[in-house]
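Example record for the data management plan.
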Amino acid sequence: MRTVIRLFFRTLRIILGPFMLLGEALSAPKGIVRSSEDQQAVDAALSGLALYQFRTCPFCIKVRQEMRRLSLQVEKRDAQREGEHRSALIAGGGEAKVPCLRIDEGAGKARWLYESDAIIAYLRERFAPAAA
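Corresponding structural encoding:
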């Protein structure tokens, strides 16, 4: 029975995935524009962040859209298939749940932030321009 359920969801992902990615591309928001100095400072701050994701996960798409809105080039790591990124997510964060933002806090320590709304709130708090 478990195999049948997995096969069903895998087939569903194969069918719906391209439509979800097309919708993401068509509804991509325009990013904010910063001065080159401000953008360089933001890019430097982003070097300690990595988003663990699945390409067609709706919650991951939600986070990626917000990253586009904020003009953030966060490193994206595919954790869907077995491999280095999935293993790092499980070892560091404790579970293979996405989206997950890895925040390097220095001195070899990292914070693992799960839940799309929490990730978006963190990104907005840290990188959204101050209201004029």
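Summary line stored alongside the record: The CA atoms of residues 89 and 95 lie 7 Å apart.
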